[in-house]
Design a protein that fits this description.
By secondary structure, the protein is an all-alpha fold. The protein folds into two domains: 65 residues, no CATH class; 186 residues, MetI-like (MetI-like fold). It is 75% helix and 0% strand. The longest helix has 41 residues.
């Protein structure tokens, strides 16, 4: 017992340091989102909701009448707040589309891979894992070369469409990896039974296979959504000059030196929503495990 105690204390210290490193920036962003002033040196001194209000309002001239409090936004930040709103719309539009498409195709690919024999299954698993193990900068540069070639041959301009294709490309492997383990747990006789009872191939997949792997599909969709909504490196390579999402908007705004704290309010809202979803999913899974239901 005496031998284990120092290691336990050391492990606890490292665990605390790890949590501090992970959550300190998030806490800092949340505090900054409620700070009225622009200067980082005065962080937390004056509580304000103006950065949250600016995220949902466009008439910045009337900020001084909200809740009877005095609000003001410098003119140099107004155009950037408007462009941030465009970036948020772009981000969610591409994320929702890429998540939906990659979930559908990823599920189809996983079912196809699962149907192969062991030799071909191993080969396609390796092909599926290659985009995941590749560094983002390599993937982004390769996609850039492909889109430059398409631009030369077919006149395809880089923008929202190329970003959408790229996000689908790097999201599909995560969906496949989430669905394949669920497919391995299915009793293959259930599919054959559905076929014997008169279901066609596609109907049997919809009525038997898809419900059985639904948790894997949901997990894959969540992975795809998470990977897409905060992607920066690949988007930077393939977006061109006209399209920008939140991550590339932050990069360009910091280069210009005009970054309003509205972006901190946006990030804080995303963090709170993600926390609620994760908490709900954990509670739900804990209840299902307690009832003996397979998660």
């Amino acid at each position: 017992m005496k031998i284990k105690t120092p290691y336990k204390i050391l492990g606890t210290i490292f665990l605390c340091l790890a949590f501090i490193l992970i959550y300190a920036p998030i806490i800092l962003i949340i505090i900054m989102s409620f700070t009225k002033t622009y200067s980082l040196s005065e962080i937390g001194r004056e509580f304000s909701l103006k950065w949250y209000i600016s995220l949902f309002r466009g008439d910045y001239e009337n900020f001084d009448t909200i809740f009877g409090l005095q609000y003001h936004i410098d003119n140099k930040f107004i155009s950037n707040i408007d462009s941030l709103k465009v970036a948020i719309v772009n981000t969610f539009l591409v994320t929702i589309l890429s998540t939906t498409i990659s979930t559908i195709f990823g599920t189809m690919f996983a079912i196809g891979i699962h149907s192969f024999n062991k030799k071909h299954r191993t080969f396609f698993n390796i092909l599926n894992n290659m985009p995941i193990v590749n560094p983002d900068i390599v993937t982004g540069f390769l996609l850039l070369l492909v889109f430059v070639l398409f631009q030369t041959l077919f006149g395809l301009e880089r923008g929202m469409f190329t970003v959408l294709l790229s996000h689908i490309f790097f999201s599909i492997p995560y969906v496949v990896l989430s669905v394949l383990p669920r497919l391995k747990q299915i009793d293959e006789n259930t599919y054959e039974a559905a076929r014997d009872l008169g279901c066609g191939r596609f109907e049997a997949i919809l009525k038997v296979v898809i419900p059985a792997i639904s948790t894997g599909i949901i997990s894959g969709a969540m992975f795809a959504f998470t990977m897409s909504i905060d992607d920066f490196v690949i988007t930077m390579f393939v977006s061109g000059t006209e399209y920008f999402n939140v991550s590339t908007w932050i990069d360009s705004s910091m280069r210009r030196g005009y970054i309003p704290k509205t972006v901190y309010a946006y990030n804080a809202i995303i963090f709170f929503i993600a926390s609620i979803i994760i908490t709900f999913m954990n509670i739900r899974n804990a209840k299902r495990i307690k009832k003996g239901v397979l998660v």
